[in-house]
Amino acid sequence: MKKSINVLLFLTIGGLILANFLRLKFNYVYDKNNLVELIQEKKTNQKNNFEIKVELKVDNFIKTKNTCQGKNQLPNIKFLNIPENTQKLALIIDDPDAPKGTINHFLAYNIPVEVDFLDKNSDFNKFKLLKNSYQNLGYNGPCPPVGETHRYFFKLYALNEPIIEKIETKEELEKAIQQKIIAKTEKIAFYKKINK
User: What digits encode the pLDDT tens for the residues 101-123?
Assistant: First the structure.
């Protein structure tokens, strides 16, 4: 009888120790997984906070000075919350509503992460430019047909490495960045050309 009690007591204590061990291990695994999820969520949120801001009118219309009816000046553009590990940036400004197909207004790549602001006075020698649809290296502003309101996409890409390929067209640029994108953000603006 005494021997049976000792065996039962031994099994009970052993069971408690095993249960406690499993509980601690489970909590460790749970906490570890939780930590991984939190880290991933933080990284995702950081990417989601990646933002491009463009100086526009209150109604998100592009200012006249930044169009063909003004001085064709590049708008003030600010890059915010650039993701960690970004090596270079790429910026595409285009108009998909043009009657004869998309018009490219500005094509730039290998922009250093230190360059988080662009305007008419920016040093474009710090990165690479492609010819836009007007065959200019640089910016040409919106110039839709009179009376039409077009959308203008300001698309900013964070890249994990520079582009070393020889690039001559927008299509080649988009292909080159495809496998290098860490994050992408965009701003849509508008412009309606009014006949003066």
Answer: 999 999 999 999 999 999 999 99
